[in-house]
Amino acid sequence: MPTVLLIEDEPAIADTVLYALRTEGFAVHHASTGQAGLSWLQGNPCDFLVLDIGLPDILGFDVCRQVRTFSQIPVLFLTARDSEIDQVLGLELGADDYVTKPFSPRAVVARVRAILRRSNSAEEEKTAIGQFLHHDESSMAILCLGQPLNLTAHEYKLLALLMKQPGRTFTRDQILMQAWEDPGSAMDRTIDAHIKTLRAKIRLAAPEHDDPIQTRRGLGYCLVL
To answer: For residue 53, which of 77, 82, 83, 89 has the smallest C-alpha distance?
Structure first.
């Protein structure tokens, strides 16, 4: 039975979401503030976080940011903010999806189930990736089928980022922010050029395998087998 933590301060909304999740077989814990939710999450096993943005003590964005320092559980934002910048910010912080208010509790449950399915698939993908690529963080090296890849610093950081979350599509901006010390000094073409050289080095190490770096046109890149 998956355990869901709901952090929501509006009682009427919390009650309907709690009822919908419990009806569908989830074990649910409820917190009314961000700090209470963080405290509970750090001391209890949990499979999913449903998180309101407009909390009375701290913003849900800040809660998500803190959660990502110690956990990679899926996060679904509940928000009254429907502006694109707020939605993008939530996803950039590591949330998996968002639902804008007003919403149907059944729609929330459906999103939770869909995200959990994707997360389970991602774990399977991560296992497959681990058999093909191995990241030795202590020596800052990545091996392909046991053979060390001769990578530049940016190639190493880029591939290590993709390996952290197999199946997840990283935009070029996300790659620049997380794999470049000075994101402003590079351009989209820089990312594309590094992807090209990475593919060539992986192909050299494993000529019989398909290219694991998938291009999502108009979106970015992801690592799949």
So the answer is: 77
Which residue do the tokens 């639902």 mark?
Answer: 99
The residue count of the chain comes to: 225
Residues 45-83: b if buried by 16+ CB within 10 A, e if exposed? ebbbbbbbbebeeeebbebbebbeeeeebbbbbbbebee
Please write the tens of the pLDDT for every residue from 42-70: 999 999 999 998 899 999 889 998 998 88
- Phi and psi for 139 in degrees, rounded to 5? -100, 0
- Alpha helix ranges (H) inside the chain: 11-23, 34-43, 60-67, 84-92, 105-132, 153-164, 172-179, 188-205
- Tell me what the pLDDT averaged over the chain comes to: 86
Structure tokens at 183: 């994101």
pTM here is: 0.57
pLDDT in tens, 72-108: 888 998 887 665 555 666 666 667 788 887 888 888 9
Of 192, 165, 199, nearest to 176 (Cα)? Answer: 192
Give tens-digit pLDDT for 193-209. 999 999 999 999 999 88
Burial (CB count within 10 angstroms: exposed 0-12, middle 13-18, buried 19+), residue 100: middle
